[in-house]
Amino acid sequence: MSRTHVTCTVNGDPVDFLASDDTSLLNALRGELGLTGAKEGCGTGDCGACSVLIDGRLNCSCLVFAPEAEGSDIVTVEGIADDDHLHPLQQAFLEGAALQCGICTPGVLIAAKALLDANPDPTETEIRYALAGNLCRCTGYDKIIRSVQEAAVRLKGAAR
Amino acid sequence: MRYAAPTTVDEARSLLAEHPGSRVFAGATDLIPQIRAGRPAPPVLVDLKRIDQLMTVLHEDGQWRIGAATPTSNLTRNRDFTAMFPGLSEAVGLIGSDQIQNRSSLGGNLANASPAADSVPAMIANAVQAVIASGDGTRTVPVAEIATGPGQTSLADGEFIVEFTVADPPSNTSDAYLRMIPRTEMDIAIVGAAVRLTVDGDIVTDATVVLGAVAPTAVTVPEAGAALVGAAIDAGSIDGSAMDTLADAASAACDPIDDKRGTVAYRRQVAGVMARRAAAIAVGRAQNGV
Amino acid sequence: MPRVHLMSDHRRFTDGEAVVESEGATVGAVIADLEQRYPGLGEALTHGASAGVNGEIHAEPHYLEVDTDTDIYFVAPLTGG
Amino acid sequence: MTVAADPPAYKWVGTRPIRHDGYEKVIGKARFAADLDLPGQLHAAYLRSPHGHARIVSIDTTTAAGMPGVKAVVTGADFPDLDPTDPNFDVSVNVMARGTVLYNGHALAAVAATTRAEAAAAAAAIQVEYELLPVVLTLDESTADGAPLVNEHNVTKFVESDGPSNLATVNVLERGDVDAAFATADLVVEREFDTAHVHQGYIEPHACVVDVGPNGKADVWASSQGHFMVRSLTAATLGWEPSRIKVTPAEIGGGFGGKTTIYLEPVAARLSEMSGRPVKLVMTREEVLRATGPAPASKSRVKIAASNDGELTAIECWFGYSVGCTNDFAGLIGAMSVASYKFPNLKLEAVGMLTNTPKTAAYRAPSAPQAAFAIESVIDELAQSLDMDPIGLRLRNAVEEGDPTAMGMPHPRIGFIECLEALRDSDHYRSPVPDGAARGVGTGFWFNIGEQSSATVNLNEDGTATVITGSPDIGGSRASMALMAAEELGIDVYRITPTVADTESVGFTDVTEGSRATFSTGMAVVNACRDLIEELRARAATILGVEQDAVTWVDGAAVADGQDPLPLSAIAARAKSTGGPLTVTASLNAAGAGPSFAVHCCDLTVDEETGQVAILRYTAVQDAGTAIHPSYVEGQLQGGTVQGIGWALNEEYVFDDDGSLENASFLDYRIPVASDLPMIDTIIVEVPNPAHPYGVRGVGETGIVPPLATIANAVARATSTRMTSLPMSPPKILAALDTP
C-alpha cells in the first residue's frame, strides 16, 4: 500500500501526517491525529457521524481519501469552541438536552454549524433537511431541531 | 492501491494509460462504499478534482459548461443555473445529503451508471452533452448514450468525462424532476421522472419525458412527450386527458425489477404519477417564466 | 395457606388446576411442597419462572417470605431492552 | 408538559440541569470504545458465513496465519464447548460458530493483525468447506410439517418436548371462558397481522479493546448496556472465572436492548491471549446489521369481542415470533401482557420459533410492540364499528389498580386512565383533524424491571460528592442519579459528580435494561445517601457535642437546637478528625418496578397515488411515575416514538433465499431521518410508583409500544384500508389500496 505525506490545517493548527492511500480522512483524523470526535457509524456516508468541514464545506470524512486533504482547511467538532467558550450550538445542545448517547452529536453539531454559517435564519423545515444526513437514533430529533433554532437566535443576537 | 491527483487532463490520461484498471473519481461517494463492500481495488485512484477544467462552471455564448467533477452543491447554489434549469437543479439537489452533495458530481453520477441516478433523467431531458477525454482528444456524446446498463457504460478503458455542455433553454421552456423515495431524504429513487416542456400561450408545444429507476438505464418516453404536445393549458393545468395519456405512456415504458427498494407493479404505477406531477410543475414554470 | 396461581404452561402438572394451595413460609418452601404433590412442577417453577407477590415481581424468589394468605403468581421470566 | 395530580415539593428532582457528562460529549472528548487505542494494539476482523445454514466441514487457517501482519487466528476450536443446557450456550455459539453456521453472517473465525486491512485480508483468505443445509427463514417455514431443523441443539422451553425442534418457547395465559363469550358477543373483530425483523439501529457499532496480560488477567474496554454482563458472558464463553476479567465501561453510543449481550469480547480476549498484545475489535455497519440485534419478526391473530355499549368481553390471541437461530429470547411474556383492558375472558398464546436468521436481541420493550400493533388495531376497528371515540372505548375498559394483569396478579398503582385522560384533554386531541389528514390513537404497556444495583457515595473533602454506580448511562441516567443525590443530601446538583465505574470499583450491577437504571440504581443511590446522612449526623453530633438523636438533617446541613446549622461541607472538611473518610455503599435487588403506560396520538396524510405517509403531528403521553430529569424523560418518549414510527413505516430486514441480508446498510435499512418527522410533543403523566422513594417507574421502553398501531389506525381512517402488515412502506400501502 502506498502512503502519502499530507499537509493540511486542522482546527487552525498546521499538521502533517503519513496516510495509507486507501484510508479515509476519518481514519487519519482519528488514528494519525488522535482527534476521535468524529465517529464512524457506517463508513458509507449514510449516517453523518463523521461529518467535518473541509474548506468550509460539510463532508462525511469517511467518504474522503486521506490524501485528498492535502492543503485543505479542516474543522472537526474539537475545533468549534473558542478557547474559553463553547460554540452557541454546543451550549444550546447542552441546555436543550439535544443529546442522549452522544455518538451522533459531533456530526450533528458540525452539520448544524455548516447550516447556520450559510443560513443564519433557517426555518424548521430547512434545519430538518440540512440535518437529514445525520442519523440520530436516541432523540427523535425534536430536541436537536429546537436546540439548533435556539442557537440560531443566540447567534443572531450576538451578531447585532 | 495508489492515490494520484493530476492537475491536467493529459496527466490523468497518462495515468490511466499506464495503469490499466485504474479508476477516476470525483466525490468517491459510490467508489468508497464499493471498495468497502469488497469490489476489487483499482491500482491507481485518479482524483480529478485538482484539474481546473473539471471543477469549473461557466456560462457563456448561450451555453453552460459544467466541469464533470464539480460538486453538485455548486450547481444548486448557482442562482443563474437554478433559474434556467430548475428541474436539473432539483435532481442534483436530491443526490444524498448536504454532505454528499458537497462531493457528488454530474460526472460521477453518470459514470457510475446506476439506473436510479437522479441527475441523469434530468440531463437527458435537457439534451445535455458529455465531453469525454478520449485517446489524445475529446469526443462529445449525448448523456443518454453513456450508461448502457446497471454499472455499465459506453466509456472505453482510459476514457473519462471532462465536462458537460447544455444550451440555454428556449423561451417559455422549463423543467422539473420528481422522484419517489420511501423517506424524505437519503434514499435511492424507486422511480424518477424528468419533464422538460415548452409552451406557447395556453398550448404545450414541445415536451420530453425521461424516467429513472424503472429500467436498466434512464429511458426517454417519446409517447409521453407526444401526449403533451398540443395539449391545452387551462388556468395553469394541462388538459387532463393528455395527462392521463402521458401517465399511461410512462407506465407502459417501464421495464423495472423487483428489488429491496420496490416492486415492478409499484414502479410501473408510480412512474405515471411522478411523470404527471413533474409535468404539472414544469408547465407552471414554463408559463411563468421561472 | 399461600395460594399459588399457575401459568397455563404449568397446569399440566396439576391436572389443569389454575390455583392450588400450598404449605411453606418461603417461596422456596412452597415450591418444595408443590414438587412433592405434583412431581415435576417444583422443577419447572425453579427454572424458568418468576414470582409475583404483593404486586411485585421477583426474579429469584426462593427465600422470599410468604404468609398464609399470600397469593403467589408464577409467571414466565421477564426481560427488558 | 407535565400532568401531575399533586406535585411534590422537591428542590432538585424534576429540574433540568445540564447533564454532567454533556460537556465532553459536545466537544468531542467523550470516550467511546472505538476511540481507545493502546500501545502495541492489534486490529481484528471476522470471517462470517456467506450461507444461511451449513455444516462446517473444515476450516483451514494456514494461509491466513502466514499473511503479512497477522499475529493470531481463532476459530470455534479455540473456545470451550458449553453443554447445550448451559444458560450461556446460545451466546457462546453465536460468538463463534461450532460445527454449524446457523445464519448468514455467523462468525466462524477471526484474525488479529497489525492493521485492520491486514486482518480483513487474512480473514478473507481463510478457507472453509461447507456442507449446505436447508435454510429456514420465516415463521411459516419454521412451523411447517417436516420443516428442516434450524438448530439441532434447540430444546423447547416451558412445555414437554421430545427432542430437538424449531419450537423455542410456548407461553399461554388464560382466564374465563372465551368460547362462551365469543358465542354471545354483540360484535367480534378478528384480524391477522405480521411484522418484519427490525434492528435497534444504534449509531455506534459494537466495539471493544481487550488486553490480556501475562498474568492471564484481561482488561476489557467495551461498549455495552452492562459491563458486569460483559464480564460474566465473556468469562462463560472463554471458560474462565469472571474475576480474571476487569471490564471498564466506555461511553455507549446507543443500545435500546441490542447491547444487553456480547459478540466481540471473548474473541478479542482469545486473540490478545494468543498474540500477547492488546486487540481492538470494531464491527462495521454491515456486520452490525447482519449479525447483531435484531428484534423478531412476528405473525399474529387477534380476536376481540365487545358489547354494543362498548364493553370488551373477551380476547383471544396467538402471537408467533421468529426468534432467530437460538433459543434464549425471554421476552414472549411481554407480548401477552399488553392487553391492558378488563377482559373477563382471555386466552393468549405466544410461541417463539427458530429461523436461520441472526439471534435476536431485546429491543426496548421486547415483543410488546408487535403484539400491541395487533391488539390496538383491533380495538380501533371495534371503536370504528361501534362509532365510539377511540379514547372513550379505551377509558371504558382500561385497567386500574387491583384489576388483574393478563398474568392474573393484580395491577399495583398504575396510570393508564390518567394517560388516556391526559390525551383526551390535550390540545392535540381537542384540535380538529386537519383537512385531508386522519388521526390515530394507540396505547402501550410495559412492566419495567428491577434487578440488582449498587452505588457508592464518596463525600470529598471540599464538600462535593462522587456518586459511583455500575449502570452504563445511555440516555442521561447520570444526571438523574445526581439529582436524586442532590435532593437527599441537600447540596447543589453541580456539587455532585456521577460516574460509572468498572467491575472492580463498584458493586455488581445488572444491565441497563428494562427501564431500570433510574428506578433500581437510583434507589441504591438514595439508600447510600440516606446512610451517608446518618453518618453525617453522627459526625455532626461529635462536632457539636450533642447526641446524634438531637441532630436532624435539613437542607444540606446538620441542625441541632440552639446551634448554628452545620453545613455538609463543614462536616466533610472535618472527616479525618471525626472518624475518617465519609464513604457509603448500598446494594439491592429491587422489586416493585412500576408498570408504565403510554397513549399516543398521530395526525397523518396518505398520498393515495404513491402510498407515502406524512406525519403531521404526534403526541406521546406516558406515565413516568416521577420525572427526575424531565428533559431526558421527554427524550426517551420522543426517541422511542420515532423508533416506533420507523418500525411502522419503513424499517425491515430483506433476506434473499439463502438468508443473506440484502439491505445491510443505513442507505437501505431506512431509519427515520430528521426531515421525515414533525416535532414529537410529549405529555408526562406522574402517578408515583409507591415502591420507589421518588416514585420512579422508568421510562425507557414503553414509548416504542404504541406507535405501530397508532400509525396503522390513522392510516385506516385516512384510507378506509386497514394495514395489517408492517412496515407500511409505500409499495405495500399502494398495493393494499389497489386491492378491492
UniProtKB/TrEMBL annotation, chain A:
It holds the Pfam family Fer2. InterPro entries: 2Fe-2S-bd (IPR002888), 2Fe-2S-bd_dom_sf (IPR036884), 2Fe-2S_ferredoxin-like_sf (IPR036010), 2Fe-2S_ferredoxin-type (IPR001041), 2Fe2S_fd_BS (IPR006058), Beta-grasp_dom_sf (IPR012675), Diverse_Oxidoreductases (IPR051452). Residues 4-80 form the 2Fe-2S ferredoxin-type domain. Keywords: 2Fe-2S, Iron, Iron-sulfur, Metal-binding, Oxidoreductase. SUPFAM superfamilies: 2Fe-2S ferredoxin-like (SSF54292), CO dehydrogenase ISP C-domain like (SSF47741). One of its GO terms (molecular function) is oxidoreductase activity. This is 2Fe-2S ferredoxin-type domain-containing protein. It comes from marine metagenome. The lineage of its organism: unclassified sequences, metagenomes, ecological metagenomes.
